[in-house]
Every structure is written in C-alpha cells, then in structure tokens.
Amino acid sequence: MALYPHVSVRDLRKRYGDFAAVDGVSFDIEAGETFALLGPNGAGKSTTIEILEGYRDRTSGEASVLGVDPQHGGLEWKARLGIVLQSSGESGNVTVREQLAHFAGFYPHPRDVDEVIAAVGLTEKTKARIKSLSGGQRRRVDVALGLIGRPELLFLDEPTTGFDPEARREFWELIRALKREGTTILLTTHYLDEAAQLGDRAGVIASGRLIAIGPIDDIGGAEARIPVVRWTDQNGAHDERTSEPAAVVARLLAATGGEPAGLEVRRPSLEDVYLDLVAAHTIRKTTTEHLERSL
Amino acid sequence: MSSAIATPRALVGRTLALGASRIGYEVKVYFRQGDSVFFTFLFPLIFLMIFSVAFSNTSFGQTATGAKVTAAEFYLPAMLAAGLLLSGLQNMSIDIATEKSDGTLKRLGGSPLPVFSYFIGKIGQVIVTGILQSTLLVVVAATIFGVALPADPARWLTFAWVFLLGVSTCAVLGIALSALPRSGKSATAVIIPITLILQFISGVYLSFSQLPEWLQNFASIFPLKWLAQGMRSVFLPDSFKSLEMGGTWNLGGVVIATAIWLVVGLVACRLTFRWIRKDT
Asked: Is B213 within 8 Å of chain A by CB?
C-alpha cells in the first residue's frame, strides 16, 4: 500500500476572470478511503474533481493524485484511475459488451468484462446498443467504464443521477465491494443519504470554499447533532434541542399527564446538518456582502 | 502495477496495437451511423450516377482512336477525388468535432489510450472506408456505365499512390480542421462550405479546363485540385493531358503539393489537437 495519501490538495484555487470557482481548498484522501464531496450546484465540486482528474489546470495551490501532479499525469498515471464523469452523451452505436471490451484493452490489468457488466446489473443488456438504453442504464455503463481498468482511485461525479431507488441500493452494494477491495473513492453527490451510506469522511464545499470536513458522523460538530424533540399542545407546535431527549419526554409526560400530541425525537441526519451548514454559510456571505456594500 | 507500459519500445507496440483495435471500433461505428454512410460514403457514387445519366448524350471529348468520352468516364476520376475529400476531410472533421462536444473525447482523454492510437484509428477508418468507396465507384462505373478501365499496371500504380497519399492527407487535414468548429452542432455549417467550394473550384463538378486561369491558379494552392488531376491521369485518355495546366499530368506536382499539405496537416494536428478544450 502506498505511504502517501492518494489525494492531497493544498490551498487549491481556480479562477475564471474575476470569479473564483475554487477558492483555497485543502484536504487529503487516504488510500482505501471513501471521501464524499458535498455542496450545492455551482459550489466548485466538479471543478475540484476535474482538476484532480487532469481535465482542468489549477490557477494556484498544490495537488497530488496517486503521488503525481494531475496537470502532468501521463498514461501510466491514467491507467491507475477510474473516472465516471458527470454527464455523457456519446452516440452509443456500440453494444454494452463491445464498449467495455474495447475500453478494457486500454488498461494493463483490466477486470473481467462480463463480471463488470454483471456488477452494474446490465447482464440482460449485454448485446444492446448503448443508445437504446434508458438514462439510468447508460449511467451504469458509465460506472462500468470507470471500473473496468481496476482503478486504485475511482472518481464518481454524481454517479447515481437517474437511478431508481432499487438501482441506487444495488449501486451502493457495488461501491461497498470496491471499498472492501481497497479502492480509494472520491464521490460527489446530491443525495446526502448516499454520502452517509458510502462515505468514510465528507467535505462540504460552498462558493468555492471548504466549509466543513470530517468523518461522516462528526461533520458540522457535535453541536449540530443534538437531537430535537418535537410535540404539539394547545399553544401550538414546539421543538427543543437537547442532549437528554428522554428527560424532556419524561417531563412532558409528567406535565400533560398523557401522551403528548405529535411527539417526535429526531437526531439530525447528515442532510439536516448539511442544509444548516450551507444555509449558515449563505447567510454569512450575504451579510458580509451587505456590510461591504454599505461601507 | 503498470510495468506493461513503461519502456518506450513497449509504448510504441502498445500504441500500434491499440491503434489497430481503434480501427476496428471506428469502422464498426461508422457503418452503424446511417446518415454518415449516406452522406459521405455513398454521396460520390450517387453523384456519379446522376451525372452519368443526366449527361448521357453529351460528349466530353474524344480518345486517340476517335471514340467518345462519356460522362461516366469523365466523372469517375472526379468522384474518386471527391470521395477522398469527403471521407477524409469532411467526415473526419465533423466526426471529431462531434466527439469533442458529446463527451467521447473527454472519456478517452481520461483513459490511458495514447492519442496516436486514436489518430491511427481515425486514419485507418478513412483508409478502409475509402478503399471500399473507391472500389464501389470503379465497379459501378465499369459494370453499369461501361467505363473502360485502364489495362496498364503503371496507371493502377499511380492510382494506388494518389489514393494513399490523398486519403492520408485528407484524414490528417480533417483532424486539424476539427479544431475549428466551436461545437458539434456548428461543425457541419463550418466544414461543408469549405469542402463544397473546394469541389467546385478544383474540377470535381465543373470541368477544370473551363475555369478562368486565375481560379485555376487559386485552386492549385489546395490539394483537391492535384488529387483530381492525379485521378484523371489514371482514368482519362493520355491525350486529355493537353487540357491540364501546362499541358501535362504533372504527377510530380501532385506529389509535392499533396505532400506539403500532409506535412502542414500533421503539424497542425500536433499543435491544435486536444482531448478537451481546457477551461471552457
């Protein structure tokens, strides 16, 4: 196993004219780790991932992917990567098997074509032309093409867009199998449950900045994960954040002498934490901009 | 892990092997696209048939023995040259521009496929389809329109090198020109006017000898005029050389002009070809 982190980014910046798409991002991804990069549309996720894939040049900062500067990655370097891009619109005049067998030939140690087709659940479509597939099925071909070269590091840019819930569960199983084999994974997704299911750690990016980073269960800090007790009484709906929800429920029971109406105890999910983080960042940013303008 | 592609020698072998695999893939994809087969593969054949039928009563000159030169005989070399331009330059540049905008090249650029293997695949596809196209043209001209084919092996040798030089030059120029359109959608609009004008001024649709001298001189800058001339030297009676500029087939000129364009195309490919437009 490599001694260096598979991905290492320091103060990464990418400017387009006056616009900073990525504005000083730093993080590491260790070998074998699954890292989820989260953030709203246009936050800089795809720009960051495309810099790491070698598709874009950074304006400044440092980046290392499998020990190589992605701006100067050669064919040997590319052979160790698997890339699932955000979108693809190829004409698709080849069959699923033809396409995978063809791409398998590019790599020194490819996976078995039929095993990969089975792993993404396309065995019945092996001989179908790619253009005849549904959007979700084409996405599975994209994922299969990302896996075929037996990558050490796999980039997944919104891989399950267009999947039905069942297909998403199957995809998660596939990714877990890859994790067990030791594949390092950088995942961007809009589905927070997906990040929670698959990720070891996550980073939240907003307006080009990394606003939170940490293990999935800690992100946003302990504060953000304090459970909420909700109930309703004659005065309307209430909610109370407390680290002792059972005590609050007991107090309510004693006070009302019966079942409190609409009682609910909730631990904030990753999605709740994420939405709070992004909302807080947006408010802070807007306030700063207002201040700057009024000064 | 990646020892298989480490040494330069292994890299060359790998590039060639993958190039061969790309040729198979490209040819397969080409013939599965219905529209490109019609517009570029069969186009010269359709025009040969239209001209041969439309001008079936027109004489295009006489052979040394006094026999009439038919429209089919006259247009066969022109359509062979047009076929090289359409399969090589036009189809190739539109095809690559489309692949650039639909994400095909982005995917390939993220894989360890050497860029030269990609070029070999493209050029190989043009050579394979060009051979089939030329064979079809010659066979149809000979069987349906009764065109007498040359018996002299030296003429067929000329045909072989004009074809190979022409097809490689057009393919390489096609790769270079694919950098011009900003998107796959605009590719047809950018490329077709170029090839259409070239065909009109280079003696493909109109008889070259009837063009004004300044236009002949202008057309001589571009390779198509020379390819058409080379093809005429193969299929038209030798006496027709008096109609060419300078009254000779000037095969040396064909070699030089086309080879210069081949080099220009190679340099342009090297300088302009990118898997993706970075930062757009």
From this structure: no
